Amino acid sequence: MTLPTWERLIHPHYIGLTANTTTPYSWMWIDLHGGPLVAEVPQGVLGAIDDHWYHWVVDVGLTGPDHGKGGTSR
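Predicted structure:
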């Protein structure tokens, strides 16, 4: 699996869907044909899991079911 991460904050000349200049960004593609995804989320994270078409699936971290306390989600 490859996990691309922007090492620097986004500059206004970059093109990104809803990107802003104060958030570090990372993304990945996961093949779920072999079974479900289990995510271990550390405390204090703020994020979301979207599908390939940017449709919301679940929030993780502060706005997710663990309320920022960390945990494992399926």
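Summary: The radius of gyration is 14 Å.
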